[in-house]
Amino acid sequence: MDVGLNTQILPANDAAVASAAQCLKQGGLVAFPTETVYGLGADATNAGAIARLYEAKGRPLFNPLIATVGDIAAAITIARFDATATRLAETFWPGPLTLVLPKTDDCPVADLATAGLDTIAVRVPAHPVARAILRAFSGPVVAPSANLSGHVSPTTAAHVQSDLSGRIDLIIDGGAVMVGVESTIVGCFDTPMLLRPGGLPREEIERALGRPLARLPEEAGTETGQPLAPGMLASHYAPRTPVRLNARRIDAGEALLAFGPGTVGGVEAASAVMNLSARGDLAEAAANLFGYLRALDARGARTIAVMPVPPLGLGEAINDRLRRAAVGRESGESS
Ligand code: TXA
Ligand code: MG
After folding, report:
1. Cα–Cα distance, 235 to 144 (Å, whole number)
2. 154 Cα to the center of ligand 2, angstroms
3. Taking the CB of residue 324, how many other CB atoms lie within 10 A of it?
């Protein structure tokens, strides 16, 4: 990768959207806001652009990308929708939901983007800037999170810049994102399965379907040689500082990531304290999660101690990301 590209940053407006579409058409890499996290866009039909994207992120080639499109009409040209998928798409798109579906026979998305799988992950984002870029480009755009592989997902343009400056062509700055954790991924298999908890709470999906989502089995898919959720291996979203979960008291020199109005013993000796949501609001906590992890990581504490977060609603995704952050970066793969 020729690190040393001159990465341009433009505030989100009509001219920036036109530049983004133009850059994508030329095979460029453009970071832009979605409502969940910032995405790194490339033309999904251009294998060369996708190869550059994997290189820019340092992402392993076996980990497939999400294709974003503007609407359901565009989605059905790349993926086959059964009744369940149609129901979910009609209920929740545009929004923070990604569906894993069989590819259509004439799917124009490059094989590299799907890592050779016969399924494809598809999403229709709700963020007005993402939507404007998809409209102007008028084709599928792959959009993994715009971070270096193994780092925390970016929720501001500054986060993208700190990971990818010099490695991508353009960053569209649309301010802080609204949701703050990545989309929920549902595999529309014989039984619909939650592959990744995310910005759309499981409970809402189950209500729309009228039945529970299957859980991802441990070692999912290894018997077929095709991982069901190739990006969900243990290490992920990791800050450099070790993370300690369910802290009920903290030791001197630890940084505290708090949640809710309560506190923990030893807090006077904390090297830094940030509260995901002092009023205990899970949506606010999700929006703050990755930014606060980055900020505490930069403080050089010996540990980031995290108070318990209830596992309901968006709490499922928050706890999932915190567990991955706590596993650390020593064991393998991430996106
Ligand atoms: O909110 C989001 O989904 C953000 C925004 C930017 O769209 N994107 C995002 O992409 O989180 P990424 O690449 O960081 O995560 C995509 C996940 C990975 O875990 C990948 O393994 C999984 O989707 N995935 C992609 N295609 C798949 C497939 N065919 N089957 C199963 N999992 C798939
Ligand atoms: Mg990612």
Report:
1. 17
2. 9
3. 20
